[in-house]
Specification:
The protein is built from four helices and six strands. With 142 residues, the protein is an alpha+beta fold. The protein has a six-stranded antiparallel beta sheet with strand order 1-2-6-5-4-3, covered by helices on one side. A hairpin with a 2-residue loop joins strand 5 and strand 6. Helix 2 runs antiparallel to helix 3. The chain starts with a strand and ends in a 5-residue tail after the last helix.
Length: 142
C-alpha cells in the first residue's frame, strides 16, 4: 500500500490562491477489476455516463436539469476487464477519484482525495475513507 501527498496552488475567480491539497493511496484488492469497480461505484455513489444519459433521455419534465446535477463534478472512464476511473465531488468542494486496474488475480485501487481545506489531509479525516476501500471492493462491507 502506497501513499503520496501533494499541495499545489489553484486560482479562484476572486484572485485569491487557496492551497489545494491532494492525498493518494493505492490498495491491492482480492477481487476482479469489474466487480471491485462496480462495488466502489455503488458504495460511493459514482454516476456513470450511461446513467446520466438515461436520465437525460427519460422524457420527464425536469430530466435535463436532473441529468445536469448528476453530471456536475463527475467523471467516468473505463475499459471492461481492464480499468475504471471514476470521480465525483465529495462534500461541498472536495473531489474524490478512484482508479481500479487489473493486476493478475486481483486489482489495484488508487484512491485520490483532492481538497480545498488542507486540514482534511490529516489522518483523522482520511482514516475512515481509506479503511473502507479494500473491504468494500472485496464485498466484505456494503
Amino acid at each position: 500500500m502506497g501513499s503520496s501527498l501533494l499541495l499545489s496552488p489553484s486560482s479562484t475567480h476572486n484572485g485569491n490562491s487557496p492551497e489545494w491539497g491532494e492525498i493518494s493511496q493505492t490498495f491491492t484488492v482480492h477481487a476482479d477489476v469489474d466487480t471491485a469497480a462496480t462495488r466502489l461505484k455503488r458504495y460511493f455513489r459514482f454516476k456513470s455516463d450511461d446513467k446520466i444519459t438515461a436520465e437525460k433521455n427519460s422524457g420527464r419534465g425536469n430530466s435535463g436539469w436532473v441529468a445536469s446535477v448528476m453530471a456536475e463534478g463527475t467523471g467516468w472512464n473505463s475499459q471492461t476487464e481492464s480499468y475504471y476511473r471514476v470521480s465525483r465531488i465529495w462534500g461541498k468542494t472536495d473531489h474524490i477519484t478512484r482508479g481500479v486496474s487489473h493486476e493478475g488475480n486481483s486489482c489495484h485501487v488508487t484512491a485520490t482525495y483532492r481538497l480545498e481545506d488542507p486540514s482534511h489531509l490529516k489522518a483523522a479525516w482520511t482514516e475512515k475513507l481509506w479503511a473502507q476501500i479494500s473491504p468494500m471492493a472485496e464485498g466484505k462491507i456494503r
